[in-house]
Automatic annotation (TrEMBL):
It comes from Spinacia oleracea. One of its GO terms (molecular function) is metal ion binding. It catalyses: a phosphate monoester + H2O = an alcohol + phosphate. Residues 1-29 form the signal peptide. Residues 390-449 form the Purple acid phosphatase C-terminal domain. The gene is LOC110796322. This is Purple acid phosphatase. Its cofactor is Fe cation; Zn(2+).
Length: 473
């Protein structure tokens, strides 16, 4: 730094040194974090063919398929159970009971169908189970009276500051062979995720001619092995939009909205694409990159009222999910999240959001705690700076879909980027108590226990001191 300062001083007098100073300035200030040099086999991601084992249709007449669950209320005492029947509507009922209890209850759901171009969906059922007990294993049966199938889930602990809870993080999953290895790797992780925070881009059906919606069905059959047993919290990505006026489809989000429910009304949201839930020690806010977010829009008004409601002595961990990242140093979707960042970042700093998870870029990246909220048009202060009130931004869009990896990074690595690597994988956020959470990222090529990147998160409300991190490369 001494050399740099010296040169800068001379540089201010002599033009030639000034230019040299600028160059050195670049080199010295832009010391980024780690760009992993992990060498992977780069092969094209190929979708699994429709007759693959993971897509098999369960046997039996009108057997329920594509079973999935998600949180059904604001506190975690309700679960939305969804499934599809193909031959006929079948029963709307879900029969459910607590482990070791003979007291069987039933809830009635609703059935609907939709058409998309020349595709007609099966009979899509959604049924909300309410007033569940916290921290309890439930069994549930769908296909009542025809071909019943039984699954189970565990409700979260009562919302509170010091209950541990473990989230899995998956994004941009798709249905390629790599997607299958990501899901398998997540399932085999010795640290067991209890719910998945899914940051958008589910099936990638829209990459097929006419957005072949059979790929929505196959995707749901593929992930059933996880999402029938633990809730996945849904974020809408660009591959959920399915806006295709060229084939007469002008209602955005049609397949996604019909197939995947979110408990948006419980958080007073007016659309299923932005909402919040509490789960154990966490308050999760889901935002929509692909719904209006400018001033005066429904999403803006909702978020403005939502953030002050978060009570950190009840839910210390404030986590935001959004599809398009705000801080992304790959040469893909570069700056696509920028306008939303400009709108909402000051609120995230004011309310001390702990972590923002995003997808969209098919790679992995973790930022330092940074903010870029000083700019006022006239003052020229438009650089990210380290900020202990700011969230860490994590891009986890590396689920493994058919579009392949994002390997091209901006150079040099910006200083705010702590770690980046173009590999498929998933992450785990293991919340221990109100102050500590252990976070780890797992690339598919490693054994299931290997942490390719990890850090202890310190809660921004209860323990706002700087963190350090470690990466295995
Ligand atoms: C829909 O149209 C495409 C070609 O336009 C055709 O290949 C496909 O078989 C049709 N699907 C149905 C269900 O009719
Ligand atoms: C997907 O992964 C599962 C679990 O590892 C495996 O049993 C299955 O054969 C795989 N399917 C394909 C098509 O790769
Ligand atoms: C939703 O609005 C109602 C009525 O204003 C209020 O009672 C309730 O607490 C709100 N719920 C949430 C989760 O903000
Ligand atoms: C990486 O992206 C940059 C910016 O878009 C482009 O100029 C460059 O050619 C790309 N490199 C490769 C190897 O594709
Ligand atoms: C919170 O968890 C961390 C990590 O397990 C532990 O070191 C710390 O003592 C815990 N704090 C309390 C108050 O239990
Ligand atoms: Fe995306």
């Amino acid at each position: 730094m001494g050399l740099f300062r010296g040169l800068s001083q001379i540089g201010s007098t002599f033009c030639v040194f000034y230019v040299l100073g600028l160059i050195l300035n670049q080199a010295l200030i832009c010391h980024g974090g780690t760009t992993s040099n992990f060498v992977r086999e780069v092969e094209k991601s190929i979708d699994m063919p429709l007759d693959s084992d993971v897509f098999s249709v369960p046997p039996g007449y009108n057997a329920p398929q594509q079973v999935h669950i998600t949180q059904g209320d604001h506190e975690g005492k309700a679960m939305i159970v969804s499934w599809v029947t193909m031959e006929e509507p079948g029963s709307d009922k879900v029969v459910y009971w607590r482990e070791k209890s003979k007291d069987k209850r039933s809830a009635k759901g609703k059935m609907s169908k939709y058409k998309y171009h020349n595709y007609t969906s099966g009979y899509i059922h959604h049924c909300t189970l309410r007033n569940l007990k916290y921290d309890t294993k439930y069994y549930y049966e769908v296909g009542v009276g025809q071909t019943p199938r039984t699954f189970w889930f565990k409700t979260p602990p009562k919302v509170g500051p010091d209950v541990p809870y473990t989230f899995g993080l998956i994004g941009d999953l798709g249905q390629s062979y790599d997607s299958n290895s990501t899901l398998t790797h997540y399932e085999q992780n010795p640290v067991k995720g209890q719910a998945v925070l899914f940051v958008g881009d589910l099936s990638y059906a829209d990459n097929y001619p006419n957005h072949d919606n059979r790929r929505w069905d196959s995707w749901a059959r593929f992930v059933e092995r996880s999402v029938a047993y633990q809730p996945w919290i849904w974020t809408a990505g660009n591959h959920e939009i399915d806006f295709a006026p060229e084939i007469g489809e002008t209602k955005p989000f049609k397949p996604f909205k019909n197939r995947y429910r979110t408990p948006y009304r419980a958080s007073n949201s007016t659309a299923p694409f932005w909402y919040s839930i509490k789960r154990g020690p966490a308050y999760i806010i889901v935002l929509s990159t692909y719904s209006a977010y400018g001033k005066y829009t429904p999403q803006y008004k909702w978020l403005e009222e939502e953030l002050p409601k978060v009570d950190r002595s009840e839910t210390p961990w404030l986590i935001v999910l959004v599809h398009s990242p705000w801080y992304n140093s790959y040469n893909y979707h570069y700056m696509e999240g920028e306008s939303m960042r400009v709108m909402y970042e000051p609120w995230f700093v004011e309310h001390k959001v702990d972590i923002v998870f995003a997808g969209h870029v098919h790679a992995y990246e973790r930022s330092k705690r940074i903010s870029n909220i000083g700019y006022t048009i006239v003052n020229g202060e438009c650089r990210p700076v380290e900020d202990q009130s700011a969230p860490v931004y994590i891009t986890i869009g590396d689920g493994g879909n058919l579009e392949g990896l994002a390997t091209n990074m901006t150079q040099p690595q910006p200083f705010y980027s702590a770690f980046r690597e173009a590999s498929f994988g998933h992450a785990i956020l293991d919340i221990k108590n109100r102050t500590h959470a252990f976070y780890s990222w797992h690339r598919n090529q490693d054994g299931s226990a290997v942490k390719a990147d990890s850090m202890w998160f310190f809660n921004r409300f209860w323990h706002p001191v700087a963190e350090t991190s470690s990466a295995v490369i």
